[in-house]
Each structure stands twice: as structure tokens, then as C-alpha cells.
Amino acid sequence: MHCKDKIQDVDYRDTATLRKFISEKGKIRSRRITGACRRHQSQIATAVKRARELSLLPYVNESAREDGPRGRGRDRDRDRD
């Protein structure tokens, strides 16, 4: 997806390619990690957001959901037992 790859536009339907630009937790990776220029990074972000809206990509990765609550919520659950 870099300028040197001569790709003009990023397609939101190409989920296999877009997954390369998403971290394990589901966040969009930064430009310095992806190596994309400003224009293509903006297109990647827009494509990921559109794919999420259409349920082609998850907002949060499945493994991150299974970890359960973190922080203050975890302490409140312990007090109830």
C-alpha cells in the first residue's frame, strides 16, 4: 500500500490486505509502522473504518475480547464474591 507499490486507491472490500494494517487488538497501525505515506495512510484508515461499519472487519479482535474486563472493573467483580 505504499507509494512505491504504485497503488492508486485502497479498497475497503479487500479485508485480507487491510488486516495487515490492524494490530492484534484491532487498532489501526501508525504510519511509521506501516511505512505508508500520508495520503495512503489516510486511505487505509478510511477503508478500515468503512469495512468495520459494514461488518467486514471487527472493531475489536476476538482474542482481546476474551481477556475480560481490565482496570477498575476487575476489582469491583472480586469484591462481590
Automatic annotation (TrEMBL):
Protein keywords: Ribonucleoprotein, Ribosomal protein, RNA-binding, rRNA-binding
Per the record, its GO cellular-component terms are: ribosome
According to the record, the residues making up region (Disordered) are: 58-81
Would I find Ribosomal protein among this entry's keywords? yes
InterPro entries linked to this entry: Ribosomal_bS18, Ribosomal_bS18_CS, Ribosomal_bS18_sf
Compositional bias of kind Basic and acidic residues: 63-81
> NCBIfam families this protein is in?
S18
Q: What does this protein do?
A: Binds as a heterodimer with protein bS6 to the central domain of the 16S rRNA, where it helps stabilize the platform of the 30S subunit.
What does the subunit section of this Swiss-Prot or TrEMBL entry state? Answer: Part of the 30S ribosomal subunit. Forms a tight heterodimer with protein bS6.
Record family assignment? Belongs to the bacterial ribosomal protein bS18 family.
Q: What is this protein called?
A: Small ribosomal subunit protein bS18
Q: Which organism is it from?
A: Svornostia abyssi
